[in-house]
Each structure stands twice: as structure tokens, then as C-alpha cells.
Amino acid sequence: MNENRKSRFLPYSLGVLQAFIGVTAVMGGFGLVLDPSGTNSNVSLEWLSNSPFADYFIPGLVLLTVIGGGNVLAGIVTFLRSRHAGNLAVGLGSFLVLYMIIEVSFVGLRNLLQPLYFVLGVIVVILGLKLSKLAKIAHQIWSQSTMGKLPT
Predict the structure, then answer these.
(1) CA–CA dist 91, 129 (Å, integer)
(2) What is the pLDDT of residues 19-38, one digit of tens each?
(3) Residue 152 — very low, low, confident or very high, per pLDDT cuts 50/70/90?
(4) In sequence order, what DSSP letters do the residues of 56-84 get, joined into one string?
């Protein structure tokens, strides 16, 4: 795949991944916020015994708003090809990785979704860094061309 095709494919890949993470996190977060006991989400309150939380309301709220809402919005920003999409992806991907590390440290490794979302967070960070680099190059070219430094 040549560089031009890669640079066109990158925002779509990242946007789809962000939308997937966002929608699934919104669903999971809503489940935990509406039922902080975790009964309907098949999670036990006993798992929180080593955490600062008495129930799943706060973790669910963070999952719903920051990871869910943040990634849905980041996906939209990425699809709109904003030059800030890469930086937003790096931030939210890093937050997802950190969230998963904290979750596993408090409740333990309970299912395959935990390592899956950790890996998805790492992928979002990598794609975000690549997109940021492309956006920076494109912005430099645009800036130079509007200043008359490049032939039109």
C-alpha cells in the first residue's frame, strides 16, 4: 500500500475503532450507572473489595462519560479530519490503557475484555501518533503555501 493510500485509510481505521470503543463503553457505563450493584452486568461487588469504591457507580460513570462519550466524539472529530484528531486519540487511548491497568490492579483479570480493551487503547495511541504526524506535516505544507513559500 503506498503512502497516499495509507494516509487516507488511517483516519477511517482510527475513527471506526474509536466509535466501536465509544459505543461499547457507553453501553457498559450505562449498565453500571443504572445498576451500581453490577448484578445486571454480571460483575460482583466482591471484586471491589480492594478498591476505593463501594459499588460500580463511579467506575461506570467514568466508563460512560470519558471513555464512551470521549471516544464517540473523538471518532466524529477523526471522521471530520480535524487536525486535532490525532492528539485527541493519543489522550483518550492513553486514558483507556490507564483505566484498564487500574481496573485489573483493583479487581484482577476477570475476563478477556480487559486485555482486549488494553490492546485497543494501545492501537488507538499508535494510530493517533501517526495521524498527528501526518496532520503536522500537512499543516506545515499548508502554512508555507499560504505564505507564498511554495509554488501553487
Answers:
(1) 10
(2) 999 999 999 999 999 999 99
(3) very low
(4) SHHHHHHIIIIIIIHHHHHHHHHHTT-TT
